[in-house]
């Protein structure tokens, strides 16, 4: 399926997905957490898949079928594989611009050494680069790159693209328990991301069945720690934990507000108290949410935070 959704996306509002890579998945990585399974067609050579006109027509048909209230905020290339392997990506983006809807691309960033790839991505309004680790060994362990990919080249081209790109640049880090989630590793990753100066740096966890079944989510403490390390590094982090929160801040419904905010970032004890006061509520609400496993109380650097509790 070339277009799907629209789906609510915390990053992009209502997003109509575009899959420009045919199945079975073709990718330059074979991430251990990939929800599309193990990469059978490991590739770094760009090729033609669908003609831009075919993508345009499919998206047009899809948009025409949506009712007025369900029009997407973004058309998002989020492929069953690596979208920049599509040699027509730039032309497809140009063509889709006719709809007047901003275009987003979620890429693993492994092919940014190619000028054409960077030029293609520069046409998009919003780009997310995958940065799971600043350490080559961990990069190899978690992303399992194509044998011809080089870690230093990958890193250098993150910086080069960040310099060239004029749209909204974002990063995404998938944290996997005992692979890239200890404090030192996260600090290194944060130091690398900081140099890219992203608008937002998303921290996510595997929420769908991963390619390798031993892959696990980090615990809430590690996730809170990652969030605080990113924040202290001067990055604007946001968590993606697989919950459909509205991310609208204060709505007047205290339970909804706490759960929604906790899904995006941990709430510090003093901020929680402010939220309760604003809603004329008291700490029994927090106890209730802890007891029904909606949120968890965690500690970092002697400060208490509340974070969304994952489904185990
Ligand atoms: S880069 Fe994306 S599509 Fe490719 S293996 Fe990793 S998670 Fe899967």
What is the mean pLDDT?
Answer: 91
Q: What is the first-to-last residue Cα distance?
A: 31 Å
Order of helices and strands: EEEEHEHEHEHHEHEHEHEHHEE
Annotation, overall tally of beta strands: 13
Strand order of the largest sheet: 1-2-5-6-7-8-9-10
Give the number of domains: 2
Catalogue the unreliable spans.
244-249
Number of helices: 10
CATH evolutionary superfamily of the largest domain: Aldolase class I
CATH class of the largest domain: Alpha Beta
Query: Roughly how many Å is the radius of gyration?
Result: 20 Å
Q: Based on Cα principal axes, name the global outline.
A: globular
What is the architecture of the largest domain at the second tier of CATH?
Answer: Alpha-Beta Barrel
Which sheet architecture does the biggest sheet show?
8 strands, mixed
Residue share in β-strands: 15-25%
- The assigned structural class equals alpha/beta
Give structural notes.
This protein has helices spanning about 50-65, 90-95, 115-120, 135-145, 150-165, 185-195, 220-230, 255-265, 270-280, 285-290; strands at about 5-10, 15-20, 25, 40, 75, 105, 125-130, 170-175, 200-205, 235-240, 265-270, 295-300, 305-310. The protein has about 300 residues and is of the alpha/beta class. The protein is globular, with a radius of gyration of 20 Å. Iron/sulfur cluster binds next to loops. InterPro entries: Aldolase_TIM, GTPase_Obg, rSAM, rSAM_sf. It comes from Parabacteroides chartae. Pfam families: Radical_SAM.
């Amino acid at each position: 399926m070339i277009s799907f959704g629209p789906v609510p996306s915390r990053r992009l509002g209502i997003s109509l997905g575009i899959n420009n890579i045919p199945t079975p998945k073709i990718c330059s990585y074979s991430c251990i957490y990939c929800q599309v399974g193990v990469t059978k067609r490991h590739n770094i050579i760009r090729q033609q898949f669908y003609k831009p006109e075919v993508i345009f027509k499919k998206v047009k048909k899809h948009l025409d079928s949506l009712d007025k209230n369900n029009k997407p905020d973004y058309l998002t290339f989020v492929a069953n594989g690596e979208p920049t392997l599509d040699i027509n990506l730039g032309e497809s983006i140009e063509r889709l611009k006719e709809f007047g809807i901003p275009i987003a691309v979620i890429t693993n960033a492994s092919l940014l050494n190619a000028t054409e790839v960077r030029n293609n991505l520069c046409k998009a309004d919003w780009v997310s680069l995958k940065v799971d680790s600043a350490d080559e060994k961990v990069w190899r362990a978690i992303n399992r790159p194509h044998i011809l990919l080089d870690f230093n080249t990958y890193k250098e081209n993150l910086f080069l693209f960040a310099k060239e790109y004029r749209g909204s640049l974002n990063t995404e880090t998938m944290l996997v328990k005992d692979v890239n989630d200890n404090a030192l590793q996260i600090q290194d990753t944060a130091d690398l991301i900081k140099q890219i100066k992203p608008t937002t740096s998303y921290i996510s966890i595997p929420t769908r069945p991963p390619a390798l079944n031993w892959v696990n989510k980090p615990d809430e403490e590690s996730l809170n720690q990652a969030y605080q390390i990113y924040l202290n590094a001067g990055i604007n982090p946001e968590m993606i934990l697989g919950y459909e929160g509205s991310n609208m801040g204060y709505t007047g419904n205290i339970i909804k507000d706490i759960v929604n905010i906790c899904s995006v970032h941990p709430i510090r004890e003093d901020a929680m108290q402010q939220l309760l006061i604003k809603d004329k509520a008291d700490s029994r609400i927090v106890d209730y949410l802890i007891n029904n496993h909606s949120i968890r109380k965690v500690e970092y650097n002697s400060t208490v935070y509340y974070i969304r509790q994952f489904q185990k």
